[in-house]
Each structure stands twice: as structure tokens, then as C-alpha cells.
Amino acid sequence: MATNQIVAIALIILGVLGLIYGGFSYTKDRHDAKIGPLQFSITEKEYINVPVWAGVGAIGIGVVLLVTGRKR
After folding, report:
1. Nearest CA to 16 among 58, 68, 51, 44?
2. 66 CB-side CA count, 13 A
3. Apex 43 CA angle, 39 and 47, nearest 5
4. Where are the domains of the chain?
């Protein structure tokens, strides 16, 4: 399997997942204060929104890569 085909399939899968879920979340650890033996840390949950146009664009580019890769 050529590299272009792998990238194309990955783009299609990521585009479909972006359309289905609409985004993803992750946790971010911040260490705000360390006073002597005490350490205060804050865990924040952040959400990244994936726009619909990005998902559709990724699928479109993936399809184009697959189609042009087969013609060669």
C-alpha cells in the first residue's frame, strides 16, 4: 500500500470521526502553587470543536488522493 493511500484513508477516517463526534476533549494539568511540602495542582478539561467544513474537507481530500493514486 502506497503512502498516498495510507494518508488518504487516514484523512477519510478522521473526517468521518470529526463529523460524528464534532470534537474531542482532553485534560490539562497545571501546577499553580508549591508551598513547602504542599503542592496545589489544577486539572482542567478542555474541549476542541472540529468544524463541519474541516470534516467534509478531510473526506474530500482523502477521496481525491485515493482516486488520483489509482490512475497511476
Report:
1. 58
2. 13
3. 165
4. 3-71
Residue 44 burial (CB count, 10 A): 9
**33 near 39, Cβ under 8 Å?**
yes
**For residues 18 and 30, which has the higher predicted lDDT (pLDDT)?**
18
Residue 49 grid cell: 470543536
Could you tell me the CA-to-CA distances from 41 to 24, 34, 37 in Å, in that order? 23, 9, 13
pTM of the model: 0.70
Residue 44 has pLDDT above 80, yes or no: yes
